[in-house]
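# step 3/5: fold
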Amino acid sequence: MMEDIHQRFPSLIFVASNILMFSMPNTALAETCEADTSVFNMPILLAVALIGATVGGLLARQRRNELQRVNEQLIQINSALRKQAKIESYAPSLSYAPIGGGRILDNEIIVNPKKQELISKLKNGKNFLRNQRPDKAFTEFKNALELAQNLKDPIEEKKAARGLGASLQRQGKYRDAIKYHSMVLAISEREGEDSGSTEAFGAIADCYTELGELEKAGQFYDKYIARLEKD
């Protein structure tokens, strides 16, 4: 029946609808069109975008603070190093410079042939590093490490581990380098003798800096600075 009414009286329906529209208060019409601006009815994507922007801003600020802290630490390190008269490095292009002796004297008398081979491997590895051939240096230091472990010589073991770490740093293999620099610290703790620990802290800090892990880098720079000031 409703279909018959629509078909027979279309003009009547049109007039009736217009009467209803114009008779409705303007405020009522406005309320039906007014947007709900409540936060709780905010579109989900917009809410996520706002949260993401806030978190991104906080992370950027944290990153900036970390960079500033590391930069201040490097300035402090350079200042401390300038006061040091003895600076030597297996990896002079890095932002830290290891200190201390550990030089192999050319006139050193070595009776044990295995010890002589060990010293030779360390010298070769160091020369390869100086000639920008870290892959060759790694092989020499690796052999030296095995010899030092067989001879139970912790001092030379640390030198070999430090050389391995420096070789890997030169090749951009920072996580592997950290393992060998950490080995230096582990040997020092095991033997109760901390030669080479200062440069190990600096090297590990450099590796974390290269990896972009600035918070960890800052922790090791703090240890490096503390030892520089103590030395």
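# step 4/5: annotate
The mean pLDDT is 74.
# step 5/5: archive (pending)
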